[in-house]
Specification:
Layout lengths: L14 E6 L2 E7 L5 H12 L6 E7 L3 E4 L29 E4 L11 E4 L12 E4 L5 H9 L5 E6 L5
Antiparallel strand pairs: 1-2, 1-8, 2-7, 3-4, 3-8, 4-6, 5-6, 5-7
């Protein structure tokens, strides 16, 4: 069943800090382009959902994926959200944060970050954030992630 996410305050979510065993990745969030996905991600992060989960899928030169409560890629938050990938302006580049799913409108908590450009994912997965390509520290952390590495926490500083 699709859950409707309140997007009233989506614009207050500007960044996510994905804290891992390897360091922290700072990701700009695209609330203007994917308000429901950003709010869903922020709500889950603020509730502590992602704390101590792992990156259960890491494919070199493709993606690192996390957000499964079971650590095997089949779990979620107990609901699904609609895709917001139609007519997106952003593309899947190195450092792009995107919603994982098992088919259209089946996303929930799992996300992936691209290790390299993946144009075949454009229009298929909702892009809701991006590591600044000049942020060498965040990109180094991204490159160091291995399957099984832990997400210590995800913080979403809010701007009022």
């Amino acid at each position: 069943m699709l859950k409707q996410i309140d997007t009233t305050n989506a614009d207050k979510y500007k960044f996510a800090l994905i804290k891992t065993e390897k360091g922290t990745m700072k990701v700009e969030l695209f609330a203007d382009e994917a308000p429901q996905t950003v709010c869903n991600f922020a709500n889950l992060a603020n509730e502590g959902f992602y704390k101590d989960l792992t990156f259960h899928r890491v494919i070199p030169n493709f993606v690192v994926q996390g957000g499964c409560p079971y650590g095997n890629g089949i779990g979620g938050p107990g609901y699904e959200i609609s895709c917001e990938c139609d007519d997106q302006q952003h593309e899947h580049l190195r450092g792009t944060l995107s919603m994982a799913h098992a088919g259209r409108d089946t996303g929930g908590s799992q996300f992936f970050i691209c290790l390299s450009a993946q144009p075949h994912l454009n229009g298929v997965h909702t892009i809701f954030g991006q590591i600044d390509l000049k942020d060498e520290q965040s990109l180094e952390v991204l490159d160091s992630i291995r399957q099984g590495d832990k997400i210590l926490d995800i913080e979403i500083p809010s701007e009022k």
